[in-house]
Amino acid sequence: MTDVNFNTALIVGAGAGLSASLARVLAKDGIKVALAARTIGDLDALAKQTGARAFACDATERPRSRSCSRTSTLLSALPIS
After folding, report:
1. Alpha carbons 81 and 51: distance in angstroms, whole number
2. What's the Cα-to-Cα distance from 39 to each of 5, 16, 22, 42, 48, rounded to whole Å?
3. pTM
4. What is the pLDDT averaged over residues 57-80?
């Protein structure tokens, strides 16, 4: 991946396909990743593999989508190790 000017990424609607590949690429480049999905049970293996954190979030419902935004804000405050 080319040089980026961010250190965190929130992937909404995470699953086993393209979003999983993106999480792997970002994590490999040292970017802290959060995975958000309606159900997070299926994301456990990906989270362990990439060091990502998984969050339950339904971006289609306004009150719950705000929690996705708060998650992104909290994630950006975490130190990169």
Report:
1. 11
2. 30, 12, 19, 7, 16
3. 0.71
4. 62
